[in-house]
Amino acid sequence: MLREYSGEPDIQHTPSFARRLAAHLPKELTPATVNRMETGAAKFDIGRVMAYEQALGCVPGELLDVFVYLFRLEAAPGAQISWVDHGDGWFYDLLYRICHNEPVSSLDWLQFSMAARLPARGKIFDSARFAEGVFGRLIEDFRSSFERDERLLREALINLSPHSIPYIAERVDEDPLALFNVVESLGFVQDRQAWAPLLRLCAKLDDGVQGQTLLETVRRWIPRDPGSFDDIRQTAPSLIPYCEHIIENPTEAYTAREEAIAFLSAGRVAISPRLRKYMQDNRSEIRQLLVEPAAATKTEIIRAVHSYVGKHLTSHGPHGRHGATGVPAGLSGMLTDAVFSKYRVQRLGFALALGPLQIASGLAHGAGLALLKDISNEDYGTQRAVLRLMTKIDHPATHPYFSRFAHTKILDEGVRLTAAWALGTGSGPHDEMCLRALLPGAAVTTRRVIVLAAERRNFPKLLTELATDRSSVVSVEAAKGLRRLPKPATPRPHAT
């Protein structure tokens, strides 16, 4: 689909595109190999993905982000996490920049993590002081990153295991709100050393923001380690009661509640009579957590998005091969996966795959219009899923819809939270006011997400107000965020 909607014949035509790719690869690929790669029949690795980015004119890391995320979900057939090494000179030059606090991009970190896996280079982490400096810098960069950069840095932490494991556990413990996504990396580490810090985090889990990633991460261990649930019962006996508690508490982060249901299901846990009664009495709410719409069918919702996308593409382009207008084949299935897949991370992965497409602007408008016009407040689970889809598409055309949606009548706390997160990615001139509009009556978890959004968008006035919040958790996190904001430039004195 990327090549079909490029608008350039030499990209759409496979033989000429293979020649274009050759300029960025050590060995030329045949057109047949290119076709096999694109259908999952031949291997894709990091080097080939980066060559695709250059040949297609993508932003560096745009396709790589999708590639590594889907690879970790085991949803990228033929994928391999390997690349062409640039040699010791390049590696130690990058290491120098890291150690001297010079600018290092998320893509640099990913390449560093791949290169450091060679045994001779891995010895650099034998020095505890040196390792502390490298991982302290990496995790601090993670703290200030968002979306794509965050996911690439997560991959770097995975690649640098087992050296990264103790630093992940320590730093997450210190700042769970800013670093809650760091925990995800431990779920992909194929090393038993990662299990002990996960259990320690589980043993004292009482935070829904951290719970959403921790529960999903721990759930990853269950299929590959038959004794994992016995470990949980012995080391973190409070985890299962915690899951039951947050499922019954609508003010908790909906993502944590959704992951709690998935976690208990994965472990085949016998739930308490109290929780069973709650789920029976609140069947419609549980359906929303599982993204099962009630006011409209899944087909009707996807059809509405599809229709808006088609109208936008017909009017504004881009057009497909030979000037074809309309929506590409297979888009309905991709949208269905991105909105209604069973698990949260699956939905996010499929949504990410839509972001680099040339039709992303049309997707942004289609999802935004459906959100405002077609999805009932009764289907708040679907509202949340569509907002997350738009966030992962990561196109500027989504931003006005986030701003408009924040001023609609939002009835569900989870929708309010998701809208706050989305505004953290936005660029609207009045988004500080939009975030304020979400505050009245907002639960503590939502106010914490508003703190994150205000810090990411550099809204010091809003953070100053939140630093006096009635919740000590919110006020402390807002004060920390305020201190981390870049200091305004001091004006130079005029010469006299």
Structure description:
The structure is a single chain. The chain is mainly α. It is 62% helix and 1% strand. A two-stranded parallel ribbon has the order 1-2.
Strand order of the largest sheet: 1-2
According to DSSP, the number of beta strands is 2
Distance between the termini: 63 Å
Question: Largest sheet at a glance?
Answer: 2 strands, parallel
User: Helicity range of the residues?
Assistant: 55-70%
Low-confidence stretches: none
Beta strand %: under 5%
Which of globular, elongated, flat, extended, rod-shaped describes the shape?
Answer: globular
Oligomer: single chain
**Structural class of the secondary structure composition?**
mainly alpha
Radius of gyration: 23 Å
The whole-number mean of residue pLDDT values reads 90
Number of helices: 29
